[in-house]
Amino acid sequence: MVGIILTIVVAFNICIFSYYYKEAGKLQMFLEDNITQEQMEEIENKVLEIDKNANIKYYTKEDGLNEMKSKIENKELLSGYENRK
């Protein structure tokens, strides 16, 4: 019985650690809309100097807003941000 409980506790801790490791490694940067391609490449190169395994994805403001809307129950909290500059 003790072995089964110990196995469950260890498996649970491994699952929690793997999730934490994946989430803690995320980095989000919010850049101005008028940033040039050259500036984006410079930022990307600096990030890759620090972490060669970085997985860089680019999102628009609209993508970010839609992601926030999907996570917030009260959608009206974000009303008015669609056309904001």
Task: Walk me through this protein's architecture.
The chain is built from three helices and no strands. It is an all-alpha fold and 85 residues long. It has one domain (2-78). The model has no long low-confidence stretch (mean pLDDT 80).
Summary of the model, kept short:
This protein is mainly α. It is built from three helices and no strands.
The string of secondary-structure elements, in order, is HHH
Name the poorly predicted regions: none
User: Number of DSSP helices?
Assistant: 3
Please give the radius of gyration in angstroms: 20 Å
- The percent range for helix content is 55-70%
Care to count the β-strands? Answer: 0
Number of domains: 1
Keywords:
85 residues, flat, single chain, mainly alpha
Write the layout of secondary structure elements.
Elements: H1 2-24, H2 37-50, H3 61-71
